[in-house]
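Good morning,

Both structures are done.
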Amino acid sequence: MTDTIEARPARKSSANARRPSPGRPSRRASENRAGYAFLAPWLLGFIALTAGPMAASAYLAFTDYHTIRGGEWIGFDNFERLFDDPLFMDSVWVTVKYAVIGTPIKLAAALGVAMLLNNRRRGQGAYRSLFYAPSLIGASVSIAIVWRAIFNDDGAVDNIGQVFGLPEGGWIGNPDLIMPMMVLLTTWQFGAPMVIFLAGLKQIPNELYEAAQVDGAGPLRRFTRITLPMLSPVLFFNLVLETIHSFQVFGSAYIIAQGGHGPDNSLLFYTLYLYESGFGPRGQLGYAAAMAWLLVIAVGIITLIFFRTSRYWVYYAGEGR
């Protein structure tokens, strides 16, 4: 009994020894400070380069602000003016048409090439690099200049078309062909979604195809019943990303149109008109900021629709359906 009583103070003193002294920071506090120190550059960059400009543009959207003479608060007038601006409506139509036509064609090309590259063959790595290369250089200024030279008057495409009896004049000067040319340009840059599709195809068990083949399913039935359902999460991911990217097209359109709108405003993309409104001769930064925020809201709504409707066609492994 005496030994037990004497042992208790010893255990208490050992517990006190493990506690940090009042003037000494704990290890957790030191780790927290180190984490904040490493996070500080990103936080400063986010505040200065992202959050700050977003807050400034949100304020400018409600002002009649010009680059030279400043501006004043006008409330929702900029947003009301947008829907009375015929050039704004043309830019919306051109961008929506580009997104609706170009995105499915680009994804279809990416999926088709990914399925071809998924088969084992000699030099597979070289083929993958070759098909991915346009995505590395496709958004550059030099490629847009080359693309304009190829499809312009007396370009390579125009000369080849004349051999087959097609009318001359090039695609850039033709309002009916300039949008297909832009769709062809974005389809040519299918490398990024192709790589994502290829990664998704590698995750599909080969036993499913073998069982379907034994049951007599042909290639088309195996594609619609196995490949597409198992690949639907990857398809959904690529669809969202490429749709957002299609609403952000700017550099290639600006260079091909040489700062203009193209014939019959056929190259007046939304971002191109936004840039022209804010940094062109008119310098209407408030009007351009309203356009930018309307684009953010529209893309957010489209993305929300995609997520809401994905439950009907996107299949995740482990879900009971």
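Second structure follows.
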Amino acid sequence: MNINAEVLKELKKGKNLLAFSYGSDSTALFYLLTRLDIAFDLAMINYKMRLNADTEELEAKKLALKFKKKIFSTQAPFFQNNFESNARAFRYDFFEQICVQKGYENLILAHQLNDQFEWFLMQFSKGAGLLELLGMKELEKRKSYTLLRPLLYTPKSEIYAFLKQNKIHFFEDESNADEKFKRNFFRKHFANEFLEHFSSGAKKSFEYLNEDLKALLDENLSEFEGILKCALNASIIAKAFKQKGILLSFKQRKQMMKKDCVMSGKIALCFYEGKAFVFEFLKNEKMPKKFKEECRKAKIPPFLRSFLFEKGLKIADFVQFARV
């Protein structure tokens, strides 16, 4: 197994946190990073959904102790509905909290080629744009940290071979066979068999598609003092939200194209001069009359007025940025 040179460079220079489960993927990545002499600590979530959940957490703590690594663990609450979606949100909130509080610059995830293909099929089946189909990146800059996926183009079969060859112990997640979870259904009936025959071609296709997407987004996304400007395209706007730390649902994507709005109470979207603007939501109801009048004349949307005032930005500078 190999790690992309750009990802490896980030790993060597940053303070790293590995999202760990003691499953096959994160365990293989643990030992691969160790062999490459990459320093990292662990973060683990116990969902209490499997018989071995407590045992896995205990063994992970023993592994961390053996290799002299810190481990941060927590127990997830019981999710009555939409387990996959709620668990994902809880997971990323927990990881981000650790990164911010402890100063980790990189969050390492063990997603691999099969995960990427499963995601692609799931999004494709319900109707999605290019950004949603290609939801995973090897290197992804977030607001407080960089998200790295060193195994993203590595097939699951190669990971199992690595573990077997090196006689590495890991826990098999029995819930992976439960088809009540949509991802498992796609894995069992479509993804695994396809990649058994065409993993090399699938890997190349994802590499080409991600290069094309990056070029498209780079051309259509610019920034001014924390404000992201982009074309009136749902996928590109969703990319701007993602850069600000929010992954939009299909319902939110439909909602956002109708009018100015605030998503998750954190990030605002405004339409101005035929373009979309995404920025941190800052509420201010006590702006001076002179500033309000200048905004009114320039037809600045209300959410943007508060942001410009709170950040001490000049209206004329923003208008110039908006019209370029």
